[in-house]
Amino acid sequence: MTQAGDQTPLRRYRTIIGQGIWVFVGQAVSAIFLLAGTRLITQFVNPELYGAVNLVQNALVLLRTLFCSPTLNAGLRYYPDAERGGYRPAFRRFLSGELGRALVVMEILAIVGGIIWSLAAGVHLSVVLVLVVLVGADVARTLEMTLFNAARRQRPAAILSAVENLARPLLVVGGVLFLGKSVEVILGAIAASVLITLALLYVAVKPVGSSDEIALPRHLAAEMRQYAIPLIPIALLNWITSVSDRYIIASLSHDAVSLGVYAAGYGLISQPFLVINAIIALTLRPAYFSAVARNDEAHAKRVFGAWLAITASICGIATLAIYFARVFLVEGFLGPQYRGAIEYVPWIALGYLFYVVEQVLEQPLLAHKRTFSVLVAQVCGAVASLVVTIPLVIHIGAVGAAYACPVYFLIQALVAATLVRRRNAS
């Protein structure tokens, strides 16, 4: 069997293009389902409830970000080594074991948090069970999708992502109509969509690295943990930069309606940038990491240059398009109660232009194991997000969070660019 590193340049590019087509199809279909689903959900869910669910979802994202993302990022970086060494099944078992231990801690925190929330806010105690199921299913799904990406199996990843984004809004609206409007019903519907995706994955798709082969090299586990440990504070800082604005709005403005409108507008406008970033990253990141792993610097530089140029160009065009089409987008994809998002979306779009560029700039640092440099960029972004967002929200409310968005993402991108330039010069 021909390994990626043994392919001719022409065959490599054909492989990348073929994978890119599946990534594009999957992300495009998923985006269509997601946008249509957002319109459907906001038609039936009021801003107060939407904002409350968003806060819970982002709290669960924090758990996954702290306890799973560092390990999964290490998995992405070291998967090419496992592929070349023939120990993918052992590699999969190692990742599963690491995530299994993390999941125990996550479930305990979810249970404690759910009980406190139920007692303090009067939410039905069934929310604890919902959170337990959602956390477990989310971790399992994230592991499988990460391995599909690392193995360049873009077709099953695309199909599964589309299925989840189709099922989620249908289950949410169905739950609201038949069981009532509550946080636990909506979270339960989200958990059900993840479980459906997992069931389809395990029934119809063979998981990556599921047969017996060579044992994991002894040094690799320690090396991967060493790689992952600095990513833990990075994960927290990234969450602060990307998500803390909603908690700042909730705690300082006490305006549940504005929070829901802001969260819906943020989700609507960030989605195109995340889709663009995902399409390009899922296509080029495995090729880039593989080139770095085999010390093919010339090919790695070409892939990274194309990655950065394509991302910046497409996202720049998207920012302009969103500015001119902001009224149409909000009125077309959000319910009538969310029209106030028109004021937020241009600033969020500009912020996400800088965000996706910064995400690309981090990749050479991660590929060359310069995780401390990534930490520096994330610290600057997180500090800037708090310093800029808090006073703006105090003085002008939720729109202040939108104004702050491009400022702190630009600062983080500039720091990352400086660090990459220094690495290249060294």
Q: For the report, how would you describe the main beta sheet?
A: none
Estimated structural class: mainly alpha
- Say how many strands there are: 0
Measured distance between first and last alpha carbons: 37 Å
Could you state the order of secondary-structure elements as H and E? HHHHHHHHHHHHHHH
Rounded mean pLDDT is: 86
Helix content: over 70%
Q: Treating each run of at least 4 consecutive H or I residues as one helix, how many helices?
A: 15
The value of Rg in angstroms is: 21 Å
Number of domains: 2
Shape: globular
Structure commentary:
With 426 residues, this protein is mainly α. It folds into 2 domains: 28-218, no CATH class; 230-426, no CATH class. The protein has helices spanning 9-44, 47-67, 69-85, 88-121, 126-150, 154-179, 183-204, 218-228, 231-252, 256-293, 297-324, 326-333, 345-367, 371-396, 398-425. Helix 6 runs antiparallel to helix 7 (183-204), helix 9 (231-252) packs parallel to helix 14 (371-396) and helix 14 (371-396) runs antiparallel to helix 15 (398-425). The longest helix has 38 residues, at 256-293. The model is unreliable at 1-6 (pLDDT under 50).
How would the blueprint of this fold be written?
Elements (H helix, E strand, L loop, with lengths): L8 H36 L2 H21 L1 H17 L2 H34 L4 H25 L3 H26 L3 H22 L13 H11 L2 H22 L3 H38 L3 H28 L1 H8 L11 H23 L3 H26 L1 H28 L1
Helix pairs in contact: 1-6, 1-10, 2-4, 2-9, 2-10, 3-4, 3-5, 3-8, 3-10, 4-5, 5-7, 6-7, 9-14, 9-15, 10-11, 10-13, 11-13, 13-15, 14-15
